[in-house]
Amino acid sequence: MATQVGYPYNQIPTEAFIPAASGYGQASLCGCIGVAAACAGAVCEGDQAKKIVYELSEWYKETPFPMYQPEELGLPSTVAESTLCEQSVNKFMEAQGCEYGDPERKSRCAGVTADVTRKLIEILNEQLG
Description:
By secondary structure, the chain is mainly alpha-helical. It is built from five helices and two strands; from the N terminus they run H-H-H-E-E-H-H. The chain has one domain (12-128). It has helices spanning 21-27, 31-43, 46-62, 85-96, 103-128, and strands at residues 64-65, 78-79.
């Protein structure tokens, strides 16, 4: 958006979203949901942004992740049933048999971020036409 549309998207420092990693450092809200909420808020009116974030969060809780696996690792899909990083990641690590710092977990979270980004764009396209 910053490159294709320019203002105001070229005014948003992407570094502002670094603290979202690892559930904001506390394994709380999944960082990709928090960043998606900020993005929705940047392009929608308040009530519409809230509706979009709610829809995205409900979808997140029931969707088997990761769908997107660019490294073709054959990672298992798990359903978070929550938007909390800790619950989402722990379900995956248990199914994969890995630890938090393992590359499989990192790849899974990258895939989830791509999945959430795609879904946010789909919802925004539906809502904003």
